[in-house]
Design brief:
The complex is a heterodimer. Chain A has helices at about 1-10, 15-30, 40-50, 55-70, 75-80, 90-100, 105-135, 140-155, 165-175, 205-220, 240-245, 250-265, 270-285, 295-310, 315-320, 325-335, 345-350, 350-380, 385-405, 410-425, 430-455, 465-495. Chain A is mostly helical. In chain A, helix 4 packs across helix 7 (about 105-135), helix 7 (about 105-135) packs across helix 12 (about 250-265) and helix 10 (about 205-220) runs antiparallel to helix 21. Chain A is globular, with a radius of gyration of 22 Å. Chain B contains 7 helices and no strands. Chain B is mostly helical. Classes of the chains: A mainly alpha, B mainly alpha. At the A-B interface, helix 9, helix 10, helix 19, helix 20 and helix 21 of A face helix 1, helix 2, helix 3, helix 5 and helix 6 of B.
Chain lengths: ~500, ~160
């Protein structure tokens, strides 16, 4: 009981309350601006978290990301331009509803089912984490190696591009982590004699470059989105309770799918939304209505993407394996704040964990009032021209990454990764897979080399322990799946051509 | 910046092979067979294999399907196709400005450098001077206020120290 009280005391500290409120507003605004994703919102927050207390730092990340995932629905419904990739799956549907004059219902469903989904995800985090922590206690380097690899493979499986290119991106991320001195031998590796490279490529500049700078680069050659017409809204929450009762089954299914996809290392909110929208269409009693402005898919996918956000923290907290790109950033913050991920977090820092749960619940509850306000003022926020927003983003990229180590080399890294991210994205290489490679490279290498040293260079022990053999089978399955799929398609088409 | 799969795949083959070779030259941990050499060797080789597959066009059919699916949902790439090569070079402006920042910030100071960057980006994105000048004046001061004053990031004063 004392732990719970302590957790409440931590969350109700003035700095934490202010942090939750300000980062919620920030997340709502950034998420609603087309092209600025939730990941980018979180990445730009990291330098700020340096200067906050541990709980306030985590609170900013949790609330900003939750709000950004919801508010991406707003320009999706009103302009047919998703604010974040996680809203892309059902943008057409929401826009069709707006054209039918149901903008209130579409946006209200967005905020209501996002909040419910977020709470469902938090409950899964509360329920899943302790038993998994018990299992995780018995993990050795072999299991960690396979787990990290499985996470990386999942990231490539769900990427919406050629699996070969996704795997190549992921491996590229691993190669990038080879740079520097942080390797088993402690010798400078691939530093080309540059002192700045001895510390390796920092994750934050790479993330900011790939997600923020490359977005500004894209804005340079893409047309400005059309301005949002000012409109009067009726009641936004009216009819949501009726929808909840009518579509409780799709909602629950969306929650569960979101939770599962979130827990899978590497797969995040955008994937959850795509899968759930497709599921909703397949299992719906009225699939013919999909695409014409039918709310059912919105309910399921909206419930799903926010649920995945919370459950993505399960592997992050327990194993240090990110559930998606947002938790990849969060892991960095956890380490920085002395809350090193691992099963012992639940025994040694139990009150911090409970505080984290409470923040998740609070963020999802205040999402409803703040979301309604945001919807009502969206027309004014979205009227801010890109030529006023992008300069600020570039300045924040430069100063924010400079702040991570007070070194100008970080700014060079940001610029370089902006170019890398832009070129990769333009050629169908998913950047999220590379980012996860960069985040997890050190862990993969360490567990791999330590395991090899323990086993005297033999590969066999990687498969001998029961848990590690299961994880190995899953990883190899994830690798073999695209190959089998490809072969199946190839042979299916071969007779047709002959 | 749309390159052929053959080009990007070929680049990955070269990058992977060089990484694997350079990795194999590194010394192992004393008294062990493995060390810092094994990981670049494995990853580099796999990158090269992937590059080869991409260059040969394996898996590209899946990509076409995914892309068709994506552009059906309001993809952003189509507008890029109609532009002249010179216009496309505009994408290099943001990274170039970041490098510019690194080079001059210590002499010019944060606020003047940031003002130049903000002004250029604003104008390139089509802002009139009526908007670009306030952006260039106000955004550096706001960023400076937040990062220097509240977050205590040591930004260089240069030519124009701020009063706080």
């Amino acid at each position: 009981m004392a732990v719970y009280l302590e957790a409440f005391r931590m969350v109700l500290a003035p700095d934490v309350v202010i942090a939750i409120f300000l980062s919620s507003v920030y997340g709502l605004v950034v998420g609603s601006l087309p092209g600025l994703s939730a990941t980018m919102a979180t990445a730009l927050l990291v330098p700020v978290t340096f200067y906050l207390s541990p709980i306030a730092a985590i609170a900013t990340i949790i609330s900003a990301s939750a709000m950004a995932i919801f508010s991406g629905d707003i320009p999706g419904a009103l302009l047919r331009i998703p604010g974040t990739p996680a809203s892309a799956a059902y943008t057409d549907e929401a826009y069709a509803m707006t054209r039918k004059g149901q903008a209130e219902l579409a946006l209200g469903a967005g905020v209501w089912f996002s909040a419910l989904g977020g709470i469902a995800g938090t409950i899964s985090l509360i329920l899943l984490a302790p038993p998994l922590a018990e299992i995780a206690l018995s993990f050795s380097t072999f299991e960690y190696f396979w787990l990290a690899l499985l996470g990386l493979m999942c990231a490539t499986l769900v990427a919406r591009s050629s699996p070969v290119k996704a795997i190549a991106s992921m491996l590229l991320g691993l190669v990038i982590t080879c740079i520097g001195m942080e390797n088993p031998g402690g010798i400078p590796r691939f530093t080309f004699g540059l002192t700045d490279l001895l510390g390796g490529i920092e994750v934050i500049p790479a993330l900011v470059g790939v997600f923020a700078v490359s977005e500004v680069m894209r804005a340079m050659v893409s047309p400005e989105p059309p301005p949002l017409p000012d409109r009067k809204y009726g009641s936004i929450m009216a009819g949501q309770w009726r929808l909840t009762k009518q579509y409780w089954l799709p909602m629950t299914r969306g929650n569960i799918i979101g939770i599962i996809i979130g827990v899978l290392p590497g797969a995040g909110a955008d994937m959850a939304a795509w899968v759930s929208y497709a599921m909703s269409k397949r299992f719906s009693k009225e699939p013919e209505k999909f695409g014409t402005g039918h709310v059912e898919g919105l309910v399921e996918a909206g419930a799903s993407n926010n649920a995945s956000l919370a459950s993505g923290w399960v592997p992050a907290l327990l194993f240090g394996v990110p559930g998606d790109t947002i938790t990849a950033i969060a892991i960095g913050v956890l380490y920085m704040k002395g809350l090193n991920p691992g099963p012992t977090l639940f025994t040694e820092k139990a009150s911090s964990m409970y505080a984290l749960y409470i923040i998740f619940i609070i963020a999802n509850i205040i999402m409803i009032p703040l979301g309604i306000v945001m919807i009502r003022i969206a027309a004014r926020v979205l009227r801010a021209p890109r030529s006023a927003i992008m300069p600020v983003i570039v300045l924040c990229c430069a100063v924010g990454t400079f702040a991570t180590g007070n070194s100008l080399f970080a700014v060079v890294t940001v610029a370089a990764f902006g170019v890398i991210g832009y070129v990769m994205e333009a050629n169908g290489y998913p950047v999220a897979a590379m980012v996860l490679g960069i985040v997890m490279g050190t862990m993969v290498e360490q567990s791999f080399v330590t395991s090899l040293i323990k086993s005297d260079g033999s590969i066999l022990p990687f498969f001998e322990r029961p848990v590690s053999s299961v994880l190995a089978a899953l990883t190899i399955g994830a690798l073999a799946w695209p190959v089998m799929y490809w072969a199946w398609r190839f042979f299916q088409r071969a007779p047709a051509r002959a | 910046m749309r390159l052929s799969d053959r080009t990007t795949g070929g680049f990955l083959v070269i990058l992977g092979s060089v990484t694997a070779y350079a990795g194999s030259l590194l010394p192992p941990v004393p008294g062990q067979d493995v060390g810092p050499n094994i990981f670049p060797l494995v990853c580099g080789s796999l990158v090269a294999v992937c590059g080869l597959l991409i260059a040969l066009g394996i898996g590209s059919r899946l990509e076409e399907e995914a892309e068709a699916d994506f552009s059906a949902h309001g993809g952003v790439m189509e507008s890029e196709l109609r532009q002249s090569p010179l216009y496309k070079l505009r994408v290099l402006i943001p990274p170039a400005l970041l490098i510019f920042y690194v080079v001059v910030v210590d002499t010019l100071g944060f606020v003047p450098t940031a003002a130049i960057i903000a002004f250029v980006i604003s104008v390139v994105l089509g802002a009139r001077l009526k908007l670009a000048i306030p952006v260039a004046v106000l955004s550096p001061i706001a960023v400076h206020l937040v990062f220097f004053n509240l977050l205590r990031v040591p930004l260089p004063d240069g030519l124009l120290p701020m009063p706080w």
